[in-house]
Amino acid sequence: MRRILALVAVLPVYLIMYGQSALECWKSMPDNLLPYLDANHRTALVEQYDITQNADNKAELNTSVTNRLRGSSHLDTLTTNYLRLTLNDHATWEMKLLATDSDDFVIATSTTILGESAESKVSLFTSGWKHLSDTIFTSSTQLERPDTMSVSDFNNLTEKISLVLWQASFSPDNDHLTLSPSLLFVPSDEKERYKVLFMQKILKFDGKTFNQI
Fold first, then answer.
1. Where is 83: in which H helix or E strand?
2. pLDDT tens-digit series, residues 72-99
3. From the DSSP assignment, how many helices (H) and strands (E) are in the chain?
């Protein structure tokens, strides 16, 4: 009985967080936050995504829309608390709903530019799309030393790095944020030496911010 009562107590919060919140947040997002797609584009993407999920032959369906910049955008994934979108050939966009300490949730987004090196901007918003913060990960101090590398060798490599770009991706299954590094301005004849530093970092949202696990 106590377990049932406890479930009833948290059920409203659960429904707010994970019912149709990702879909509703996507539809209610202000147009200026994603200039590629207005409200009509976003609705069309969801409708096409639903058709695709129920189709027998998905390969024959065109699930893209022509965005406001004359490019093609595609909704890749939509769950109860996660969304991933291919904006065009050079950019992706993710949205994730994350629980906070106050039994509410924040909307987290990751905008990634795909060039020779991928770079992401992670933004946090309230449940009503009020902007809270932006983070672009660029620090070389976030690089981790492999277990097989000595401290001196690691320091010798990292002190020569002027800039690191990080690609940030949310997990559809939990509140983790994965950071994947790419190094800039490394001489081509030395790139092989630096490959050992391409280690992913996993951060966890603690209700306020992202911290390393």
1. strand 82-88
2. 999 999 999 999 999 999 999 999 999 9
3. 5, 11
